[in-house]
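We were asked to recover a plausible sequence for a given structure. The inputs and outputs are reproduced exactly as logged, with field labels preserved.

PROBLEM: sequence recovery
POSITIONS: 243
GIVEN STRUCTURE:
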């Protein structure tokens, strides 16, 4: 299981939100570039970048900062937040992003989403499924849909998507661990897809509990606030994932 550090960008700065609430924001002194270097030097294989301004606006807003990170680090980067068109995907790739995360567009415009899945390789696209009480949240987590998260994942797999990032919003930034039951259900629903857990990681034991689910397709876990707040080091989380 890979430990994937996160960089959330808002107004050009590194921030973390609690449960996706823009009113509960922590701004960190380090810039996105500095954090990119930090995670790269720590041995990260992939950095998870979220353009929070883009998520609210409906198209990327921090591509200059993102491109700077991608140019500097040796590992790959993925980007989510406001990716809702072919042009957005191409702009992200031009910035150096290895793969992009589709979120709101999967619910808002299923026909466009299906087209994007046909036009791009499966290793270039990821489904970002963010759920509140099992239902998909969209537009920077500001709106709840009526779409069931697991049903959406199975539908997208049938259309060709092969990687899912699953976030339980209620756990995000709370250090209470992953929603293990929901993660197991998601992994079982798309057993041939790679599933990445996101939200709630506060210590090495939280990752050990994910490993203990014994789901071979649970291939990674995204960690943000616990690293930024100094609750745990990247090395400690990586060691837990490798046990």
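RECOVERED SEQUENCE:
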């Amino acid at each position: 299981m890979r430990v994937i550090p996160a960089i959330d960008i808002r107004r050009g700065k590194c921030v973390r939100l609690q449960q996706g609430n823009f009113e509960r924001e922590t701004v960190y002194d380090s810039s996105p570039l500095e954090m990119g270097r930090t995670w790269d030097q720590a041995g990260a294989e992939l950095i998870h970048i979220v353009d929070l301004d883009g998520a609210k606006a409906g198209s990327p807003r921090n591509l200059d900062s993102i491109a700077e990170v991608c140019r500097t680090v040796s590992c790959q980067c993925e980007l989510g937040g406001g990716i809702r068109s072919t042009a957005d995907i191409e702009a992200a790739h031009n910035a150096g992003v290895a793969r992009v995360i589709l979120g709101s567009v999967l619910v808002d415009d299923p026909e466009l989403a299906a087209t994007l899945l046909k036009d791009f390789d499966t290793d270039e696209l990821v489904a970002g499924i963010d759920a509140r009480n099992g239902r998909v949240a969209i537009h920077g987590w500001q709106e709840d849909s009526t779409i069931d998260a697991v049903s959406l994942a199975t539908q997208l797999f049938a259309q060709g998507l092969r990687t899912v990032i699953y976030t339980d919003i209620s756990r995000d930034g709370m250090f209470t661990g992953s929603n293990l039951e929901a993660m197991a259900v998601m992994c079982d629903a798309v057993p041939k897809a790679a599933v990445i857990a996101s939200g709630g990681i506060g210590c090495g034991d939280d990752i050990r509990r994910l490993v203990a689910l014994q789901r071979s397709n649970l291939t990674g876990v995204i960690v943000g606030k616990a690293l930024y707040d100094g609750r745990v080091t990247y090395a400690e989380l990586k060691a837990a994932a490798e046990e």
